[in-house]
Amino acid sequence: MRVKSACMTFTPSKINFFLLFKLPSAFITGIRVKSISEEKAVIHVKHKWINQNPFKSMFWAVQGMAAEFATGVLVLLAIKKSERKISMLVTNMNATFTKKATGKIFFECNQGSEIKIAIQKTIETGEGQVIVLTSTGINEDGVVVSKFEFEWSLKVKA
Among 37, 95, 99, 146, which residue's beta carbon has the most beta carbons within 10 A? Predict the structure, then answer.
């Protein structure tokens, strides 16, 4: 899906190209955007040799990169749409792992409306806002393998 913003069109292929140059470790390990809208981002990564741990499943840090990207790309999109300079920073993270991550794993975040509200608040008040965004890792069988919560700090730049 294409989402047009003031500065650029957010498409999976353009964001994946961005990954290659700005987050090469994510690109090399196979993290890719499957779809993005103003409300939801889906990132996928396939378990393979380059991203595995000694137990023949996906290394937790690769899952973390994909999960963070699912939340962060939604924040980036909302910032672009606001047409304001807003800083974004992960200030805390929590993760739960419930099953071995093998095969293709999809990380989803569907909190776009909550992000818009937080950005609007920081624009209106000039005060930093903190928002907790969840990214759930689901395997091809529909089973949850991991769940990440990222605390994002958002603030209008002076």
Answer: 146
Residue 73 domain boundaries:
3-156
Distance CA 33, CA 46 (A): 12
Can you name the residues that pair with 89 across neighbouring β-strands? 153
Question: Quick count: other Cβ atoms within 10 Å of Cβ 117?
Answer: 14
The Cα 39–Cα 19 span in angstroms is 21
d(C-alpha 25, C-alpha 27), whole Å: 5
Give the model confidence (pLDDT) of 49-103 as tens digits: 999 999 999 999 999 999 999 999 999 999 999 999 999 999 999 999 999 999 9
Instruction: Find all residues with CB under 8 Å of 34, minimum gap 6, and list them.
Output: 12, 42, 43, 44, 106
Overall number of domains in the chain: 1
46: CB partners within 8 A, 6+ apart: 30, 103, 104, 105
pTM of the model: 0.89
From the list 10, 40, 11, 36, the residue with the least C-alpha distance to 114 is 40
* Distance, CA of 29 to CA of 118 (rounded, Å): 31
Partner residues linked to 42 by β-bridges: 35, 108
